Amino acid sequence: MRKGFLKKVSSVALALTMVVGSINIVPAASHASNGANVASNITWNYFSIIPADGKESSLDKLHNGHVDGEDGKKVKYCWYHALTHIRTEDYPNGQVPLGDFATQGWVAPGATASKAQFWAANTGWDGQYNERDGSLVGDNPYGLRFYTSNIPVEKGRTYTVSFKYRSTLKGKKTIYEKDEYGDYKYDENGERIPVLDENNDPIQEDNYIKHIGFNVINPANNNGLDLTSYSGCTSGGSIEADSSVEGEKTVKVTVKVPKTYAGNAICVQFTAGSYITTYPDETAMKGSLFVDDFKVTAGNQYTVKYICGNQSYTEHVNAGEKASGHQFAVKGKTFSAYKVGSSKYNLSTPVKGNLNITCVYTATKKPGKAKVTFKAAKKSAKLRFKKLSNAKGYEIKYANNSKMKKAKTKTTTKSSIAIKKLKSGKKTYFRVRAYNLDSAGKKVYSKKVVKKSIVIK
């Protein structure tokens, strides 16, 4: 295998595998009943650097033209910008079949929504490499991954992802020298020193352990969701598949879909490629990961219905959480209180069951007569308002005649306002009234109007 070529390509493979998750678009999720398995209709997909048919392609098929390098010269293979040269019509699933990569696997035939076999012909040994010097800088487990089709979810709801798994993955690992304290010995290049046989070849032994990434992502942007609780895996979603152990292990995690979530679906994926820096003994393994009893269960929610006359609004609240509240737009009315039955209801109370909440409204109070002072200035006038109960703002009409013909109108919610571009030496007539706002955002004006005229300086 051409390792130099591998180092350059693998960073491209990482980028590719991170962007192929735009699986399929699902319609907005309807409200699922408590405990429903929302993953009952999923299918399983896979990404593999070498596809199932094992076909290779030429470098020219991977790229589409030459580009300028950092030194200004034409570079034959632009790894940093390779994504812009991928011929997507040749690889509709984002697959880049290059013989330099051993990473290969697929979903075995016969998979159902709850049960699947993920076959790895080779989990590979690719990683992330520095484009400039070719140095290894990180893992690339995304070279082989298995993932669900989109699973419909509701914003703000909690879901439990659960499954059982077992493994037949097996590979070889090198035995390295250790000191008297059990720590590895390293050479002058910082590499572990292998134990050699009589032919000076590194001694290897069977390896049955493969760490596999497991995470819940948003297919709209590939962002992962935090696990709010977990068992059978790490907080980051890593599982340890040990093929030397018989029987199945169980994983159970919960995630909460944020109310500000982009989209209406999640995707569950397993990354089975190489963790070449984190677990260097687990490369180039062969075998299967079996997943069984896979479910995504909708968390318990209660129905909270807000009622106002013939209007209603329904929200679904997670058990033990608080209702968000809802207010209606009612002309001439102001929200007063929430009631359940004849008792007032406090939104700070955790919801423990289905609720019908009545929204109580009262007539919007009109403010009193505005308290305003006028001060003439050069070609302007300044009005100041004293605090007034139930006043949300003020409407000011002004004209150069007492009959208010062709009057101009300004409104303000501040405690003062300057009226400019007035005629110097002339009298300006003002009419001011305060206003309140009803629940529909409409102005409710004071009955009394302040009338005033002043001579502008």
Q: Which stretches of 5+ consecutive residues score pLDDT under 50?
A: 1-27, 55-100
CATH topology of the largest domain: Jelly Rolls
What is the assembly state of the chains in this entry?
single chain
> Under the CATH scheme, which class of the largest domain?
Mainly Beta
Largest sheet: 7 strands, antiparallel
Return Rg in Å: 35 Å
Residues in β-strands, percent: 35-45%
Helix content: under 10%
Mean pLDDT: 84
Secondary-structure-based class equals mainly beta
How many strands in all? 32
Signal peptide: 1-28
Protein name: Fibronectin type-III domain-containing protein
Organism: Eubacterium segne
Keywords: Signal
Describe what you observe in this structure:
By secondary structure, the chain is mainly beta. The chain has 3 domains: 3-170 and 208-298, Galactose-binding domain-like (Jelly Rolls, Sandwich), CATH 2.60.120; 301-363, Sandwich (Immunoglobulin-like); 372-455, Immunoglobulin-like (Sandwich). The protein has helices at 3-19, 59-62, and strands spanning 44-48, 67-68, 74-75, 104-107, 116-122, 127-129, 136-139, 144-148, 151-152, 158-167, 171-174, 204-207, 209-218, 223-224, 227-231, 238-242, 249-256, 265-271, 287-298, 301-308, 311-318, 333-340, 343-344, 355-363, 372-377, 380-385, 393-399, 408-412, 416-420, 427-437, 443-445, 450-455. The strands form 8 sheets. Strands 1, 8, 9, 13, 14, 16 and 18 form a 7-stranded antiparallel β-sheet that branches. Strands 4-5-19-10-17-15 form a 6-stranded antiparallel β-sheet, with no helix packed on it. The protein has a 5-stranded mixed β-sheet with strand order 21-20-24-22-23, with no helix packed on it. A hairpin with a 2-residue loop joins strand 20 (301-308) and strand 21. 30% of the residues are buried. The model is unreliable at 1-27 and 55-100 (pLDDT under 50).
